[in-house]
Amino acid sequence: MNPRALLLINRHSRQGKERLSEAIHCLETLGFHVIPESTENPTHLGDVIRNYQHEIDLVIVGGGDGTLNAAVEAIVDTQLPLGILPLGTANDLARTLGIPNSLPEACQIIAGGQLRRIDLGWVNGKYFFNVASLGLSVKITQRLTKEVKRRWGIFAYAATALQVIWESRPFHAEIRINNQSVHVKTVQIAVGNGRYYGGGMAVFHDATIDDQRLDLYSLEIKHWWEIIPLLPAMRQGRHIHWQNVRAIQGQEIEVYTRKPRPINTDGEITTHTPAVFRVIPKAIGVLVPPL
């Protein structure tokens, strides 16, 4: 009996609209019974998944990290296996899991049926796959419009980041973990669950998405230009060894600021400080390449 797959593709993603028919053909060739659904509003993806939960064997999401994040709560609730077709701009979750951007190869991985239980991050009731952060990354998110991402692709992240860094101003925050408190003056606090975010930046060099821990770094620079020598190390997650970067690991972390500051989760602004971050171990099953 052919596995019944609910295929959700974000038509607004960089490749979504033109790759839909290719994805259906590829999956059907591999033996899936495909039920394609689309929504103009990604926030409705969860409702679509719940509506189909008793009629399907798995959910396949085509899009970027924002589209996947829009579906994650329903995946947790239904515990359906998740297949990923990386059709977004950054595809950081796919990069963390070793899923290639090639659509035929990503379909083959789903057909291979290798299920891996992965952790999720959680902040103030909102799940995230990759990273939740405040500071520089929020300003980057606010400026990375759909039009900018569609036009410039992955280069949009770098160009926008440089502009935001140049304008950056430090803010005060309190970080609490294991009944200890530290006060910082920082331009960015990032809390990672997976390894990659922001178009290929690494949170920690050894982070994995099933290590049952959160990895926090605080970027405590005084002048914008101090971040420039850090950028190559940030690609590999080795910035945590630099003097003006604070690194903390744990299963639950609290962050407080003088006034509420917005927090982005997987590239979408969803909550604000004060914030409680937790790791949810082995929360969902994702179809991944064989080890």
UniProtKB/TrEMBL annotation:
The keyword Lipid metabolism applies. It comes from the Bacteria. Belongs to the diacylglycerol/lipid kinase family. SUPFAM superfamilies: NAD kinase/diacylglycerol kinase-like (SSF111331). GO terms for molecular function: kinase activity. Residues 1-127 form the DAGKc domain. NCBIfam families: PRK13057.1, YegS/Rv2252/BmrU family lipid kinase. Its cofactor is Mg(2+). This is Lipid kinase. Keywords: ATP-binding, Kinase, Lipid biosynthesis, Lipid metabolism, Nucleotide-binding, Phospholipid biosynthesis, Phospholipid metabolism, Transferase. The keyword Acetylation does not apply.
